[in-house]
What we know:
By secondary structure, this protein is mainly alpha-helical. It has six helices and no strands.
Amino acid sequence: MACAYDREELPDEAETETADRRALEAAFHEAMVRTYERARDEAHYHAALLLRMVTEKGGLATAWQLLHHPVVSDGFTALWERGRVDLTAEAVVIRPRFRALFTGEELAIASSRVVGASAHTTT
Length: 123
């Protein structure tokens, strides 16, 4: 039985994984932008610094930087005070769709911040 494609015509597995990774990173970036917009529109919080970081560095690099900072950002605190921890970068990080972009340690940091803040909501 003849094969419809030569092996050379099929996408290389590594190329497919790389393309999938790039697509996931792009989706994460868009999710970060949408989260900024929702924070602005729904919580009346204008996270200008977050938007600048996402625009200049990209969503993924911004998330990594926030996760590796020893304390939560001022934006995280402001959203916590509004009862909207769901609109933080950390909340985007722990979405099941994006977990593959982060290490176990990064996921643990994001999760502990979101869960810890949710347990101590001010509203």
